[in-house]
Design goal:
Blueprint lengths: L9 H13 L6 H9 L20 E4 L2 E3 L2 H10 L7 E5 L5 H9 L2 E6 L2 H13 L5 E5 L12 E6 L8 H5 L1 E11 L4 E9 L2 E10 L6
Helix pairs in contact: 1-2, 1-3, 2-4
Bound molecules: S-adenosyl-L-homocysteine.
S-adenosyl-L-homocysteine (SAH) binds next to strand 2, helix 4 and strand 4.
Length: 211
């Protein structure tokens, strides 16, 4: 997205990828390239920019947070995307995870509950020229039935249990990547197999709660 030769953030991006993401085992080349190219600093408030590539979550206003870079990369890798994938994201937030998905997939639909965050994310994504993203304001736990089925669904706010609509909207072979729990949370992957749903718990995480 930006010319690395003249990008003043290039060194910080590269350190983020090497020290936080590759070192923790993320390998998918498309995910690593997306983490190198998507400018994370443009998604965080002006006052937070200097810390944009640090190893942790950050405040994006309205009591919400942008996930730690490693968690964004891990969730994207777990979705197993390719350039033809149709992806649904619940919890647009600042739109950073959306931009990473858009770099790895064919088309991204994203839903945000807070109109103010949704508007800001739409502006940032448009400025970056992310043409394969469709966004709307609403309750993501209902999914996006008109655009289903999806090859992957990513949820970036934690419910106590899996919203049934999201499993219904998974294509055959499709993967739902979702944090589950309230006081204690784990990241889960649910896969729609020919004979039913397979589930795997990946790592403990901490997300804001799905409302
Ligand atoms: N992926 C985001 C993370 C944002 S935090 C990023 O990269 O910035 C989680 C987001 O989920 C918040 O913006 C919150 O407003 C939103 N959210 C919470 N409950 C929701 C719901 N039921 N439907 C849609 N969005 C929801």
């Amino acid at each position: 997205m930006t010319d690395r030769a003249v990008d003043p953030w290039a060194a910080r991006k590269e350190r983020m990828v090497t020290d936080q993401i590759v070192s923790r085992g993320v390998k998918d080349p498309a995910v690593l390239e997306a983490m190198r190219s998507v400018p994370r600093h443009v998604f965080v408030p002006e006052s937070e920019r200097a810390r944009a590539y640090d190893d942790g979550p950050q405040s994006i206003g309205r009591g919400q947070t942008i996930s730690q870079p490693y968690i964004v990369a891990l969730m994207t890798e777990l979705a197993r995307l390719d350039p033809t994938s149709r992806v649904l994201e619940i919890g647009t937030g600042c739109g950073y995870q959306t931009a990473v998905l858009a770099a790895c997939a064919g088309w991204v639909w994203t839903i945000e509950l807070e109109p103010e965050l949704a508007a800001r994310a739409a502006r940032t994504l448009a400025e970056l020229g992310a043409a394969n993203v469709t966004a709307r304001v609403g309750d993501g736990s209902l999914g996006w039935p008109e655009a289903a089925p999806f090859d992957a669904i990513l949820v970036t706010a934690a419910p106590a249990d899996v919203p049934p609509a999201l499993l219904d909207q998974l294509a055959e072979g499709g993967r739902l990547v979702i944090p589950l729990g309230t006081s204690r949370q784990d990241l889960w992957v649910f896969t729609r197999e020919p004979d039913g749903i397979r589930r795997a718990s990946i790592i403990p995480v901490r997300f804001v709660l799905l409302r």
